[in-house]
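Consider what follows.

. . .
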Amino acid sequence: MLGTYVIKNNKMSSNNWKTAAEQEIKALEASEVFSPTFRKKKLTAYIVRTILAVGLFYYFWESEWARWLLWFYIPLNLFGLGLIVLMPVFLRKKIEKIKAKIDGIEEGN
C-alpha cells in the first residue's frame, strides 16, 4: 500500500519505510486532483451536463416520468457537485492524518 518495504531480521527498516511512505504521500499531493485546472475542467463539464439536463427536463416536462426522474436527478447532481468541490479538502485532511500517524509511529520506535 505504501510502497516497497525492506525487512531485515524480521523487523521493518524504519528509515526505508518512512522514506517510502513520504514518497507515496508526495505522489498523492502531486496528483492532478489537487490542481485548479483539473477542478475548473470538472466544474465546466458539470455545468454543461446540468444545462443539458435542465433542457431535457424542460422539453419532456409533459411526460410524467420526467417529473419522477427529476427527484432522482437533483440529489445525484448535488452529490456530484459536492464531490468536485469538497474532494480535495477531504483528501488534504486525510493526507495530514496519515502524515501525523507516520510521525507518531516513527516517534514510537
User: Anything to note?
Assistant: The chain has a mean pLDDT of 82. The CA atoms of residues 42 and 66 lie 26 Å apart.
